[in-house]
Design a protein that fits this description.
The complex is a heterodimer of chains A (347) and B (327). Chain A is 37% helix and 20% strand. Chain B is α+β, with helices and mostly antiparallel strands and 327 residues long. In chain B, the strands form three sheets. Chain B has a seven-stranded mixed β-sheet with strand order 8-10-7-11-9-12-13. A four-stranded mixed β-sheet of chain B has the order 1-6-4-5. In chain B, strands 2-3 form a two-stranded antiparallel sheet. The chains are: A alpha/beta (347), B alpha+beta (327).
Chain lengths: 347, 327
């Protein structure tokens, strides 16, 4: 019955009003899926952060992919979610409908074989993601280099979380953060510890299953309601203080840090990962894609920072739906607007 | 021997192929006449008619193959309307390069499945296109439905009990692991379900609606039924049967068993006072032994899941492409 008791605590919480943020898109989704979000007390406001990689990719990155899709001899390949993200002129899905070459893969590794089988095609891979995905991309790039597969090129928009969290902490509007468990598996808990200390924030690293989420949320409410600063690792089975050294080494071998633009947020120094000089022949022109056009009225930029709820956007559910997204947050299955639109109803 | 364009040209090679492979496996008194069209005996009841095409990749997978699937798909669509499936047509589009041995294996599998389901394949067609050894199959089927039967997607009533005939996601997970070349113990649940429907109907149960859970999974099928009937369906998370293998795979790949397809499971809605009996009858059948009561129909709209924590969450139909070429 312990789980029911924890659930009852979150349901009946009557302490000081809390504004909490789950940073990771997978948490956003899992909080709905487990029914945890639906039972939170009204005195707890849970907002979503910039933790959906697709949602924070600027429009100039999409534009560059679209340009490649229409370049003879090139074939753009992405994770499925990227296809529908609006660029300043069109999405990759629209480019495909107009004869552009864009398709999706299930895993980036499969592209190694595909590139070998079709040497006459240059495959442009949209390498999007956070610390969790970066090691996968690093491995694929390393394998492409080791096997001399020259017709694989990577347009990277890889981003790192601590810089974004630091930006959010500096604004001081959030009472506590549910930190991304998957990212922490790679980075370790240390970067989050440092942030919690530097900004006096309450931070909890949580897992994704129902019992893990429940434990993390209860910890977050308990500590933030008392104003306790610090980091609590409630995902200790897989998150270690030092993280995954092998994955970190792989990433360091291929990538180096650089400035990156987050859609709606702006440029965050050192928050991007770019191919090192040694691997530059695999880079499809990833640096300097800084232009970021947000459609008029779209609240994505405030939504990814937790300053607005999806339902406060004038386009939400009207002009902007998962079938016809206006903003990036409506596209991905981990995007806040998409999740809220699809899973919003509870009664 | 490999299939070539001449095998679909309508000449001697086509006749040979039909004689050697299709006629020898599918034979029955109607097909054996080899007329341009099959003449069927008078049907006693309402004729029910449906058609389905099959493009699954790979052609063979643990638990089945495109041939078995092509018979089960149409048989199950007829059965879900409360009809007894009687006759099928089978049309093939073959790509050049296909081994005739492969084709024969597929055709033999169709014949065996048709025999199990008790249907006759009475007409067919073969075309050959240039390609790379692929096979596409269309089957159409006719069944007979008793005049008193009114099973329909629009016939759910508030108060009905929703029964699931077994575990979710097996076929989808099997196809996916085959594509990813993963070694697992997964097996497709592909099966003809007409006998279990017949058993329930023979038991005199007033079945309101049946749907086989194919592409889009339970979430999509339940949403369609709720919409068609103007009702709400509440499912209970803790009661939904999912095998450990599917649970593990969907956990790793971030899939939801609720939107994963089956090829041998159904959702059956019956009045709540007949639920216990219907469940017992289903559990006594070969393909329904894992049947469970999964939820209930109420007034309202949409499909909701009662989570283990006691809150309701909205169940959403599959969106986007899902896994293409699953059947």
């Amino acid at each position: 019955m312990r789980e029911k008791e924890l659930a009852a605590f979150l349901q009946q919480y009557k302490g000081r009003p809390l504004k909490l943020m789950e940073v990771c898109g997978t948490h956003t989704s899992a909080l709905y899926r487990t029914g945890l979000r639906q039972l939170l007390s009204e005195t707890i406001t849970l907002v979503s952060g910039p933790g959906c990689p697709v949602c924070v990719t600027p429009s100039s990155y999409i534009d560059k992919l679209v340009e490649y899709a229409f370049t003879p001899g090139c074939q753009v390949m992405t994770f499925g979610d990227m296809l529908a993200v609006p660029g300043s002129k069109m999405s990759l899905a629209e480019a495909r409908d107009q004869g552009g070459a864009a398709d999706f893969f299930y895993s980036p590794e499969e592209m190694l074989e595909k590139a070998k089988a079709q040497p006459e095609t240059t495959f442009i891979l949209a390498a999007v993601g956070f610390e969790t995905t970066a090691p996968v991309w690093a491995t694929v790039i390393k394998m492409a280099a080791d096997n001399n597969i020259k017709n694989l090129k990577f347009l990277t928009a890889l981003k790192t979380m601590p810089q974004a969290l630091s930006f959010l902490c500096s604004k001081g509007r959030i009472d506590g953060f549910l930190c991304p468990g998957h990212v922490a598996v790679i980075t370790g808990s240390e970067p989050f510890e440092e942030l919690a200390e530097a900004y006096g924030e309450t931070m909890v690293i949580g897992g994704f299953s129902q019992p893990q989420l429940l434990r993390a949320m209860v910890r977050l409410v308990l500590e933030s309601s008392k104003g306790h600063a610090g980091l609590w690792n409630e995902y200790p089975s897989v998150v270690k203080r030092e993280g995954n050294a092998a994955a970190q080494k792989m990433v360091d071998e291929i990538f180096e840090a650089g400035d990156a633009v987050w859609r709606g947020v702006g440029l965050l120094p050192g928050s991007g990962l770019y191919l090192k000089e040694k691997y530059k022949e695999f880079d499809a022109g990833s640096r300097g894609l800084n232009e970021d056009r947000i459609p008029p009225g779209c609240l994505c930029s405030r939504i990814v920072l937790g300053d607005a709820l999806p339902t406060q956007c004038p386009h939400f559910g009207k002009r902007c739906t998962p079938e016809h997204p206006v903003g990036a947050c409506m596209v991905s299955s981990e995007g806040t607007c998409c999740i809220t639109y699809r899973e919003g109803g509870t009664t | 021997m490999k299939i070539a364009l001449r095998h679909g040209a309508g000449g001697e090679e086509t006749s040979q192929l039909i004689h050697d492979i299709f006629a020898s496996h599918f034979q029955n008194e109607i097909l054996n006449k080899m007329e341009d069209a099959a003449v069927l005996p008078k049907i006693d009841g309402a004729p029910v008619f449906t058609s389905d095409s099959f493009v699954v990749e790979p052609l063979f997978f643990p638990g089945g193959d495109i041939g078995k699937l092509s018979v089960c798909g149409t048989v199950n669509d007829l059965a879900c309307m409360g009809a007894k499936p009687l006759y099928l047509t089978a049309s093939f589009i073959l790509e050049t390069g296909l081994e005739t041995e492969t084709l024969e294996k597929i055709v033999a599998s169709m014949a065996a499945t048709a025999k199990e389901a008790g249907v006759k394949i009475v007409a067919g067609d073969t075309k050959v296109v240039e390609g790379n050894g692929g096979v596409y199959i269309n089957t159409a089927g006719i069944g007979m439905r008793p005049p008193a039967c009114n099973i329909s997607a629009a016939n759910l009533k508030a108060g009905d009990t929703v029964i699931l005939t077994g575990t979710l996601g097996d076929h989808h997970a099997t196809i996916l692991t085959q594509r990813l070349q993963m070694e697992t113990s997964l097996q497709s649940d592909c099966a003809p379900l007409n006998h279990i429907v017949q058993t329930v109907l023979d038991a005199g149960i007033d079945v309101h609606a049946i749907r086989d859970i194919t592409r889009g999974g339970l979430a999509t099928v339940a949403t369609e039924l709720a919409e068609a009937s103007g009702c709400r369906i509440n499912l209970e998370e803790e009661k939904l049967p999912v095998s450990e293998a599917v649970k593990g795979l969907s956990g790793i790949l971030g899939l939801d068993p609720l939107t994963m397809g089956n090829e041998g499971k159904m959702l059956v809605a019956v009045p709540c006072n007949e639920a216990e009996k219907a469940l017992a009858v289903l559990q006594s059948t070969k393909y329904g032994k894992d049947a469970v009561v999964a939820g209930e129909v109420t007034e309202g709209a949409g499909v909701f899941l009662l989570t283990a924590l006691g809150s309701y969450r909205k169940v959403l139909p599959l969106r986007g492409e899902g896994l293409p070429r699953i059947c």
